[in-house]
Amino acid sequence: MMVSIGAVSKETPVVTIVHDCQVVDIPEELLEEHDIAVDYILTPTRVITTGCERPQPMGITWSKISREMMEKIPVLRSLRAREQQAGKDVTLQGEHQHLREPGRQQAVPLNAGRRPPDTPGPEANSMEAARGSPAGEGAPLAADVYVGNLPRDARVSDLKRALRELGSVPLRLTWQGLQRRAFLRYPDSAAAQQAVSCLQGLRLGTDTLRVALARQQRDK
After folding, report:
1. Is the full-model pTM beyond 0.90?
2. What is the extent of the structural domain holding 170?
3. Residue-wise pLDDT tens digits, 71-110
4. Where are the beta strands (DSSP E) in the chain?
5. In this predicted model, what pLDDT tens digit does every residue of 22-56 receive, in sequence order?
6. Is residue 220 included in any domain, yes or no?
């Protein structure tokens, strides 16, 4: 976002402050296009120059932005309007890319996801559903997959790596390590069902994970 409004550039150094025990090497395959590389790490005992030459993201990756985020962060709507006028691809997460015909630019309504003030929306019910929802984000959808029986010492990077190796990468991963579970969001119910079949028998360490559609898990 800071790049989009011109507040920073690719020459702007990125500095973070952590404890010494938090300094670890992250495998390149776990990084995504929107991840920001750090130039300097400050700890209580030292200053580390990373020397990382990985390109920094040069703007907002709109495909990672959901309609819910657009509702909650008004400045995103302004930035999206500006980039759409500039001819950039501002397709949001979950919007259907296949509806766009090659060579034909279609406008994405900037008020998509917005409703008249008196019209109740899905998030109005989500606040109530969140209290009893395993994912804490409203009632599980048909495109959500439940992953349970995670090892107590498992990390989200372990699960991400396993998903990549199996070719079953979700749109979003919600990690709930203390509850030894995670929720995977896929584009549609068919993709979710395929992921459930693909992940049956998946093991992390010595533990075999429980994998099922999130709605089925809730109904048990």
Report:
1. no
2. 143-213
3. 888 888 888 888 888 888 888 887 754 444 444 444 444 4
4. 15-17, 40-42, 47-49, 144-148, 172-176, 181-185, 203-204, 207-208, 210-213
5. 887 776 667 776 677 788 999 999 898 888 777 77
6. no
Per the domain annotation, does 100 fall within a domain?
Answer: no
Domain tally, the chain: 3
Contact 23, 38 (CB under 8 A): no
The answer to whether residue 183 is domain-embedded is: yes
Long-range contacts of residues 24-27, Cβ cutoff 8 Å, at least 24 apart: 26/157, 27/157, 27/161
- Same-domain check for residues 156 and 190: yes
Q: How far apart are the first and last CA of the chain?
A: 42
Q: How far is CA 6 from CA 56, 59, 73, 78, 127, in A?
A: 14, 10, 18, 14, 35
Q: Tell whether 156 and 204 lie within a shared domain.
A: yes
20: Cβ–Cβ under 8 A, 6 or more apart, which residues? Answer: 43, 44, 45, 46
Co-location of 165 and 207 in the same domain: yes
Length of the chain: 220
Residue 166 lies in a domain: yes
